[in-house]
């Protein structure tokens, strides 16, 4: 990398602007910016053409991120709840609270203390959080928000080929595919810089399909759109496999277990059934099938639309089986991939904050893996807990099995399924400790809030959606008494009287330990160092300091017991005809807007990123319910209700209503906290039966800044 970038530790005269290259706080593209620093603050950020992923393009969110750093509501001191109010206290008092709150619980029943992490955390923090839970707290109950994200795709990949790198090839390969099928991925709004690869493919004559109940911006650029019924993507895949078999296109990538059963199953999915269940014209399905059959490098990419269902893992199995059986899986520019979402959504699922996992994508169930990590941590393998509850189960158990919860990098009051129920559970906790840098809705319920660090206030590495590890460089120091998150985790270990293993003198000690901890794991980063990453980013595995990285991850043989893949038979719900009622049965689906990020803690506060929290529906659906644009509508599901303004979008299926989930009081008041995918434990964020009821404007729940900045009583 030849651009001028100076590490934060370089000593320069004050007020001389210096440049620090770092990565964006938001999504999994992980665009690189040069921050222009004056007086410990970035005054400007310039995207760089040297960014190996985005090549100088960025999105609005990334550019707007600077203004959050010194937001007036930035947390700069610990806040402790006293007489119902969160009041500023010093770190000593905060840590005294932690000691008194947690020490007796840890002595009596460590599993009563839960830890909830995030795919926004750097690899080093991910690693440290997992170590903190297992070694300092000794609790089984740690999991993280990635369970809500690409967990179904991750589970299907792991079950099939034994490991999971979202894209097993460099993103630029997308440009060489001759058919790209985006299944429930609205990349023009969610991963904008990768549209350049999609356009490159189109320029070379590729066909691009967007499979989505809405005609999204992405669908418009793609050119081909299949407005599928929510949840029916697996059926579509089985229908394609049916025709590929009929058309003699089956030539598996490699021998594998389960081939025959999967091929038999596809016989039951002829085009008429598929068109009916997916709610699309048979002619459109046949056009896609011909395109797939004729393509030399078809690439299927899933987003959350296909994955966030109670049968999300099975849906991905169906798509993955198709790519595998037609011989495209693992080929450059072809096959199957999942588009990871959070900034470190990839690394965040590899290094031990998952409830069943140890660093390097090791299994907490595997005695050899336990012994390897126990040796590094200097503990008895028997002392490492077994796997505990998954994210939603952990939240649902708050106030019963779980008495105290530590949250780092997530805002489940907004983002968890059945958020109304989850909020009640969080209120029932004895202790809720939230480490955040802004007063998220979850922080506002806490008994203790610890002020953490923002992206460019801390060193670390992140791994993007193609498994590319990059440095996130520290550019400035956190304001006031805010502390680097990794130091806070060490403080917590000390507070509960378990300092051993949390005594790093510098960040570098932690980082080097993290790289070492991955040695021999499937996600092996042990050939990496900050210096190597300064020279170039690297795609894992990188097992040797002097050896190459791995742009192509999915070449057989696979890291399974016998080196073979295992294809799984997907179990899919049957989609029956709509009931004979005067009104259409409606399905609520949820997702993202280009100008907001996740639970919105940062982006809702950013004046540069305005967006509307409305219920999107087809004009015919609105008319049928006596509604017009701007009217208040109450949406009701079996799990809750909310009232929002209507917006009309002719591109959505008339039987589908869409809500963004970036605000409190929207999508997740209506989703189901109970039903989870049996394999990935993913809730069904993308399909909930819903009814619509005209409401009075006074009932509108939508007030973007609601709750922000006001003291909240528990
Ligand atoms: N602007 C912005 N960008 C983001 C984020 C953000 O919050 N805001 N979050 C980041 C994160 S963590 C993630 S995970 C990614 C997510 O990125 P995406 O997966 O692109 O995001 P979503 O909007 O959740 O879902 C994509 C599409 O799925 C469609 N959909 C809904 N149900 C179904 C279905 O059953 N089948 C199909 N085929 N499609 C369906 C929706 O209409 C939507 O257009 O975005 C990342 N980037
Ligand atoms: N209905 C519905 N619900 C969904 C989804 C959907 O599509 N529909 N998508 C799901 C998906 S894919 C995801 S990924 C989740 C995301 O939802 P959440 O898990 O809530 O994630 P964020 O909104 O990113 O929350 C991050 C919180 O942590 C803070 N934070 C961020 N980075 C750091 C850090 O490095 N240190 C500290 N100390 N704090 C930090 C932020 O200020 C914010 O308050 O939502 C899920 N929920
Ligand atoms: S949000 Fe994603 S696409 Fe936008 S600048 Fe950041 S990393 Fe790039
Ligand atoms: Mo996500």
From TrEMBL:
It comes from the Bacteria. Residues 17-73 form the 4Fe-4S Mo/W bis-MGD-type domain. Coiled coil: none annotated. Pfam families: Molybdop_Fe4S4 (PF04879), Molybdopterin (PF00384), Molydop_binding (PF01568). GO terms for molecular function: 4 iron, 4 sulfur cluster binding; metal ion binding; molybdopterin cofactor binding; NADH dehydrogenase activity. CDD domains: MopB_CT_Fdh-Nap-like. Keywords: 4Fe-4S, Iron, Iron-sulfur, Metal-binding. It comes from Deinococcus puniceus. Residues 339-364 are annotated as: Disordered. SMART domains: Molybdop_Fe4S4. GO terms for cellular component: membrane. The keyword Iron-sulfur applies. This is Molybdopterin oxidoreductase.
């Amino acid at each position: 990398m030849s651009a001028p970038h100076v590490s934060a530790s370089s000593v320069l005269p004050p007020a001389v602007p210096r440049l620090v290259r770092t990565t964006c706080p938001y999504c999994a593209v992980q665009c690189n910016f040069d921050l222009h620093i004056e007086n410990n603050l970035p005054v400007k950020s310039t995207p760089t053409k040297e960014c190996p992923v985005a090549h100088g393009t960025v999105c609005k969110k990334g550019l707007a991120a600077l203004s959050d750093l010194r937001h007036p509501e930035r947390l700069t001191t610990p806040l402790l709840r006293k007489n119902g109010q969160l009041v500023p206290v010093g770190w000593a008092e905060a840590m005294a609270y932690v000691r008194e709150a947690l020490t007796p619980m840890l002595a009596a029943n460590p599993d009563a203390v839960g830890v909830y992490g995030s795919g926004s955390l750097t690899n080093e923090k991910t690693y440290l959080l997992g170590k903190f839970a297992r070694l300092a707290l000794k609790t089984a109950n740690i999991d993280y928000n990635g369970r809500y994200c690409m967990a179904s795709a991750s589970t299907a990949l792991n079950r099939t080929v034994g490991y999971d790198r979202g894209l097993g090839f460099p993103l630029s390969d997308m440009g060489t595919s001759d058919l790209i099928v985006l299944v429930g991925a609205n990349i023009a709004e969610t991963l904008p810089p990768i549209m350049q690869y999609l356009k490159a493919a189109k320029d070379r004559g590729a066909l691009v399909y967007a499979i989505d109940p809405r005609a999204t911006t992405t669908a418009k650029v793609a050119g081909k759109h299949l407005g599928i019924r929510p949840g029916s993507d697996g059926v579509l895949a089985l229908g394609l496999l049916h025709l590929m078999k009929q058309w003699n296109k089956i030539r598996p990538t490699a021998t594998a277990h389960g081939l025959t059963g999967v091929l038999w199953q596809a016989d039951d999915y002829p085009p008429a059934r598929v068109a009916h269940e997916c709610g699309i014209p048979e002619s459109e399905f046949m056009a896609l099938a011909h395109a797939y059959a004729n393509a030399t490098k078809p690439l299927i990419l899933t987003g959350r639309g296909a994955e966030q269902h109670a049968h999300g893992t099975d849906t991905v199995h169906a798509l993955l089986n198709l790519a595998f059986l037609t011989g495209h899986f693992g080929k450059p520019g072809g096959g199957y991939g999942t588009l990871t979402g959070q900034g470190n959504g990839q690394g965040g699922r590899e290094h031990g904050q998952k409830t069943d996992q140890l660093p390097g994508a090791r299994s907490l169930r595997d005695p050899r893996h336990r012994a390897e990590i126990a040796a590094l941590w200097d503990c008895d393998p028997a002392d490492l807990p077994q796997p505990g509850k998954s994210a939603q189960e952990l939240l649902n158990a708050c106030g019963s099995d779980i008495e105290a919860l530590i949250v780092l990098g997530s805002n489940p009051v907004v983002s968890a399924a059945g958020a109304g129920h989850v909020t009640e559970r969080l209120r029932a906790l004895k202790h809720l400790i939230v480490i955040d840098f802004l007063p998220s809705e979850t922080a506002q319920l806490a008994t203790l809030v610890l002020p953490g660090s923002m992206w460019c206030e801390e060193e670390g590495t992140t791994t993007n959606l193609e498994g590319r590890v990059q440095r996130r460089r520290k550019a400035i120091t956190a304001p006031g008494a805010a502390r680097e998150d990794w130091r806070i985790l060490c403080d917590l270990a000390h507070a509960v009287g378990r300092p051993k293993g949390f005594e790093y003198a510098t960040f570098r000690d932690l980082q080097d330990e993290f790289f070492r901890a991955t040695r021999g794991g499937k996600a092996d980063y042990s050939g990496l160092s900050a210096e190597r990453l300064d020279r170039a980013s690297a795609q894992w595995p990188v097992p040797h300091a002097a050896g190459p990285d791995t742009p192509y991850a999915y070449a057989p043989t696979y890291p399974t017991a016998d080196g073979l893949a295992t294809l799984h038979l997907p179990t899919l719900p049957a989609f029956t005809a709509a009931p004979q009622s005067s009104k259409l049965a409606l399905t609520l689906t949820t997702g993202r807007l280009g100008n907001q990020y996740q639970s919105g803690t940062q982006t809702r506060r950013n004046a540069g990123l305005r967006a509307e929290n409305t219920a999107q529906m087809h004009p015919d659906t609105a008319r049928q319910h006596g509604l017009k644009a701007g009217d208040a509508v109450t949406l009701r599901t079996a799990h809750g209700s909310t009232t929002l303004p209507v917006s009309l979008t002719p591109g959505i299926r008339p039987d589908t209503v869409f809500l963004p989930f970036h605000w409190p009081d929207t999508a997740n008041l209506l989703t189901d906290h109970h039903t989870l995918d049996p394999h990935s434990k993913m809730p069904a964020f993308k399909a909930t039966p819903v009814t619509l009821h005209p409401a009075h404007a006074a009932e509108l729940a939508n007030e973007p800044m609601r709750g922000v900045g006001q003291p909240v009583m528990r």
